[in-house]
Amino acid sequence: MRYEDLPEWSNAAANWAAEYHRTLRERPVRPELNPGVIAAQINPSPPEESESVETVFNDFVRIIPPGMTHWQHPRFFAYFPSNASPASMLAEQLANALSAQCMLWQTSPAATELETMMIDWLRQALGLPAGLRGVIQDTASTATLSAVLTMRERALDWRGAAEGLANAGVLRIYASAQAHSSIDKAVRLAGIGQENLVKIATDDSWAMCPEHLQTAIDADRRAGLIPAGVIGVIGGTSIGASDRLHEILAIAQRENLYSHVDAAWAGSAMICPELRRLWAGIELADSLVFNPHKWLGVNFDCSVQFLRNPAEQIRTMSIRPDYLQTLETSEITNYSEWTMQLGRRFRALKLWFLFRIYGLRDLRRRIRNHIEWAQDAAHQISQIPGFEIVTPPMFSLFTFRFAPPGRDADELTQLLLERINADGRTYLTQTRHDGRFVIRMSIGQFESTEQDVMDAVGVVKELAATIC
Ligand SMILES: *Cc1c(COP(=O)(O)O)cnc(C)c1O
């Protein structure tokens, strides 16, 4: 394949993509297939000789989409969304054409400067204070690990990376019991150890108890341990729980602990000013992550980490061997000094296209619709005999279970979920809440309509009738 052939096949791919999206509603959200059936259709070894683009393209159409879970399906209400607006897909094509490696300003001047500008657009769109800077990461897990490493280095007076942790003492990190597993992973990988992640109990509103946080920090200090950081959550993955940031971040600040907030999903909703009361106090956070690749409409991957004082993370991450020295002045930004990876993709272009092609007004309208439809769906489900809403809509996520009197609700709810997902018209996932098996319904697909949401509720009702 030569570049002369690219227009023909790019057009074929774009046409395929448009048709795929136009007919997505007719496909099951999740394929019914056994593990191994796709691998069995792929040659076990790479070809010696060239094959035509047409053959490869046709094999893609034949083999791959039928073996995919369709994340862009308008009735995908599992996990959290991973929205891909056509505007961001278009930008991705152009970024691919350039295929720049954006590690230093010098290796990618326009990408670096656009990244700085897009971080600031996002800062304004979310109503965050002036002066906050940031960097685009691949995922929230990476941003959280970066923040935890900074917690570690700051608490050790920046000696951990150089000297190792053998004589470092025991560091402690505090997070809510609703915190995402990426926080456990970060604490493990940072060498702090799972046992030193203190999960603080939550109150009736599923927010971390500030008094318990304070008590835990005091007890650790008395025991000679080293408190290093506090991690708050806004819109937790299980049920959408949020901490009262103004209370817990004030404690972190008073205790001189580095703080990080995980708003991976719900951060996008903060483009709506009326929701910002839910993260009041956010301006106190040292680090904040949210994923435009979840709810906002930027195709995966694009995760934004805001930093109040980037110098602390740069001091943790930066290493500058001779071959990366550049001669520019200190006015330029080399984003690879802010991140674990040296090599960086050009992700800012997707944000630029998204913001300009939709505008904030339209992006807000979508999020407000999702929140309203989640409330309607929860209400509808609460009206079906035997059903109860376990946690009310938080942003656009709620959980429910099927608990007709005298029956084992865990077993029935699990059976119902299996039927729903085997049926294919919609896709929901589960969590455990207060020891109970519950079904999550998370609304946020870029192209969902109110009808799609109500159709999914209809499927729940119809299939519940088949098991009772
Ligand atoms: C999705 C999610 C994560 C993990 O995000 P990745 O970008 O996949 O690493 C972490 N925390 C919360 C609250 C999430 O919703």
Characteristics:
binds pyridoxal-5'-phosphate, Aspartate Aminotransferase, domain 2, Aspartate Aminotransferase, domain 1, globular, 7-stranded mixed beta sheet, 468 residues
Write the layout of secondary structure elements.
Layout: H1 6-22, H2 53-63, H3 86-98, H4 109-125, E1 133-137, H5 140-155, H6 160-163, E2 171-176, H7 181-189, E3 197-200, H8 210-222, E4 226-233, H9 245-254, E5 258-262, E6 287-290, E7 303-307, H10 310-317, H11 348-382, E8 387-394, E9 397-402, H12 409-423, E10 429-433, E11 436-442, H13 450-466
Parallel strand pairs: 2-3, 2-4, 4-5, 5-6
Antiparallel strand pairs: 1-7, 6-7, 8-9, 9-11, 10-11
The protein binds pyridoxal-5'-phosphate.
The site of pyridoxal-5'-phosphate has 14 residues, from helix 5.
Structural description of this entry:
The chain is of the alpha/beta class and 468 residues long. It has three domains: 1-30 and 69-83 and 361-468, Alpha-Beta Complex (Aspartate Aminotransferase, domain 1), CATH 3.90.1150.170; 37-67, no CATH class; 101-345, Type I PLP-dependent aspartate aminotransferase-like (Major domain) (Aspartate Aminotransferase, domain 2, 3-Layer(aba) Sandwich). 40% of the residues lie in helices and 13% in strands. The strands form two sheets. The chain has a seven-stranded mixed β-sheet, sandwiched between helices. Strands 8-9-11-10 form a four-stranded antiparallel β-sheet. A hairpin with a 2-residue loop joins β8 and β9 (397-402). α4 (109-125) runs parallel beside α11 and α5 (140-155) crosses α10. The longest helix is centred in the C-terminal third of the chain and has 35 residues, at 348-382. The N and C termini lie far apart (58 Å). 42% of the residues are buried.
